Amino acid sequence: MAASSAAARLPAPAPLLSIGQVLARLTPEFPDLTPSKLRFLEEQKLVSPARTESGYRKFCAADVDRLRLILSMQRDHYLPLKVIREYLHDVDAGRTPEFPGAGAGAGAAAGPRPSMLSQERRFNREELIREAGASPMLLNDAVSASVIVPAEVYGDDTLAVLRALVELQRCGIEPRHLRGFRAATERELGLIESALAPLARRRDASSKAAVAERAKEIANQLEVVRGSLIRSALGRLAQ
Q: Which of 10, 40, 60, 61 counts the most CB atoms within 10 A of its CB?
C-alpha cells in the first residue's frame, strides 16, 4: 500500500510532442520555422526525435531545447550547420567545447544554454530611430538608397545597419554613396542561385529546406571573402 502511494506521488512523464506542437512552441521565437525545416535538421543528424510504431515523429522537452539552441546559433551567430553539428557532437560526448565564434577563454564551459541566447528584438520606426541615435531623415535616405528595406517592424539587424550609417555619416559617407551595395548584393544572390540551381529543381520539401540552409552557408562564406578583400585593401592604404 505504501509503495502504491509513493508511486502515485511521482510526477507523470512529460508528454511527447508532435511536429505541429513543436512548431506551436517555437514559431513565436522563430517565425521562419516550418515542418520541412524540422525534417531537414533531423536528416542532418542535428536532432533525433523518437518515432511511433506508425512512423510519426515525437519530440521530448530536451529535443525542443536542442532545436531552440540550433535555431538560435543559426540566427544570432550565423553559424553553418557543420559547425553546429560539431559543437553538439562534443557536448553529447560529455566534453565542454568553446562556443563557436567565442574568443579565447570565452564561453569555454559549453556555450550559452538555450535560455541564455538572446531573442531578436522588434522595433517600430520611432523606436528604431531612437535606439540607433539616428535622424528620421537618415532612415528615409537609407530606404531611398535601398540600404534598408522599409517595414512596419524592424529587427536587430536593421538596428545595427542604421547605427553603422550614423557613424558613416559622421565621416561624410551618406546612404546615397552606398547604392552600389545593393547591386553587389544582387550579384552575390545570382551566384548563390546558380550554385543551388540543381538542388532547387527538386520539388520535395526536404530539398527546399536544404536550399535555404545552404544558401545561408554560402552567403557566410562570401562574407568571409569580402571581409578579407576589404582588409587587404586597407593594408595597401596604410603602406
A: 40
| Orientation angle between helical segments 136-144 and 156-170, nearest 10 degrees | 100
Domains 14-101 and 120-184 in one fold: yes
What is the amino acid identity at position 143? V
CA–CA dist 6, 19 (Å, integer): 34
At 54 the three-state DSSP class reads: coil
User: How far is residue 146 from each of residues 140, 183, 187, measured CA to CA in Å?
Assistant: 10, 10, 15
60 vs 56: CA distance, rounded Å: 13
Q: Which residue has the cell 545595427?
A: 160
Query: CA-to-CA distance for 2 and 5, rounded, in angstroms?
Result: 5
What are the boundaries of each domain within the chain? 14-101, 120-184
Q: What is the pLDDT of residues 61-101, one digit of tens each?
A: 999 999 999 999 888 887 888 889 999 999 999 998 898 86
CATH number of the domain at 120-184, please? 1.10.1660
- DSSP designation for 107: S
Neighbours of 154 (CB within 10 A): 24
Tell me the pTM.
Answer: 0.55
Task: State which H helix or E strand residue 145 sits in.
Answer: none
**Cβ within 8 Å of residue 237, ≥6 positions away:** none
Q: Specify the 3-state DSSP secondary structure of 58.
A: strand
pLDDT of 168 above 50? yes
To which H or E segment does residue 51 belong? strand 50-51
